[in-house]
Amino acid sequence: MTVSSTLKNKVAIVGVGESDIGRVPNMTGLGLNAQAAKRAIEDAGLNVSDIDGVMTAYSFTEPYFMLGSVLCEYLGIKPRLNASMVVGGASPAVMLHHAAMAIAAGQANTILICAGENRATGQSRDAAIASLTAVGHPYFEQPYGTSIPGFYAMIALRHMHEYGTTREQLAHVSVNTRAHALLHPNAHMKKPLTLDDVIAAKPIADPLGMLDCCLISDAGGAFIVTSAERARDLASKPVFLQGIGEHHTHEHLMCAPSLTQFGAAESGRQAYDMAGLGPKDIHVAELYDCFSIVPIIELEELGFCEPGEGGQFFEEGHARIGGKLPVNTHGGMLSHAHAGAAGGLFGFIEAVRQLRGGLGARQVEGAEVALVHNEGGILSSHCTAILANDKG
Amino acid sequence: MSHDLPRPIVNADSQPYWDGARESKLLIRKCKACSAFHFMPRHVCPDCWSTDLEWVESAGKGSVHSFSIIRRASLDAYSARTPYVTALIDLDEGPRMVTNIVGDDALSVAIGDRVTVVFEDRGDGALLPQFQRAAAGA
Predict the structure, then answer these.
(1) Which of A69, A103, A265, B116 is deepest in the core (most CB within 10 A)?
(2) Structure pTM?
(3) ipTM of the shown complex
(4) CATH number, domain B15-133
């Protein structure tokens, strides 16, 4: 089914902010959100009174039901638009989609998109892992002791079986991402990583080990979306939305149509169509990387390589800064930060920074067009966005 | 594997499934309108939206689509079982479901292995469908 209108060049991201990241025991999840929001609003050169819409996601560490209303209350914002999106890791991109629709329809002017949790210190490690288990189906998956790493491990093993992807290629994803994190001043992980480190790490769910799994961080992230017209008058260099698309195929892995083909191909197609661009036009990609297998599949689905060649793409160094298509230049969720929906949100923050330029050793030369992909559940919900620093 | 693991939770959609399991039967949903099978029970057929659905007994045979050996359990209740196998299996009737692979040779499982259903006691008469590797040629 096609839709009849476009969001191309209707809105721009005009401010970004990250909270302190890592172990931040002196701050609550809401506090991390507030810190990130304040930094994003300052970055945009706006005042909090300019915000008339707020979108956030969910929290596993703080017991609030109406999280969007709670966040507005905490921030002292009384917006005309407020929503809490629960599409797992896809939530930030989906929030951008909804914000763009609202602004294009004239229902809001300037929207704060915000997410964060104190996952590292706000709960025990066991509680963090146990609460994530709730993603498994409570009646037909959880009785079997399923785990999120276990679901992604089954996807990884099937990819290895069908395409010959190797254990080493999975490890290359973690190594690639860590090398980028070392160039980011606010990344959670500060030490280099070798292939041997990844392969020898504590096994979690074969073939995945501890270093194939995303971090558990305290972290919050925020960005500000406004109309393309208004963006021109603001302090920061605007980054314009060129295309965006979603696709949702299942929630539980037992109901997924395939273990090797997911909804990113369709969300990507929609985003490319809206932007009038293709994979060859993308200079930098910030892909969801909750587990090492995931960016491999996303590279394939989004058309950056052939099906089955994602592992090789990382192994041959094409995803490095300076390579054919630098991937996760901030360090991703494997090495920069992961705290609920904030994980994928940092991909947007990094894309904006890359398109503004001036990042020193981390800068992708000539970056003018970026792709950000978020996925939620077990590769269940997908949203792809294409951003550019010029109103193309 | 046993009584100290969580008992299945029964709701209105799944009552016949778990009642069947108590009698060592693996029941799956079949749509009378379009003849499609599906696993997770629901009020409508996910293929054609008919509400004219029936429960049929699966032959309890299938093959392993993928699996993982869990080395670190996410819930304490399962920690004593590690390492254990979670798998996605395709029943011969078509539907895909999650299971453990149980039995002495479970950790040697491979993609494509043939498996057959067995029932695991979870206490108070509740049985959980599980699968074990079939003898060659089964």
Answers:
(1) A103
(2) 0.97
(3) 0.96
(4) 2.40.50.840
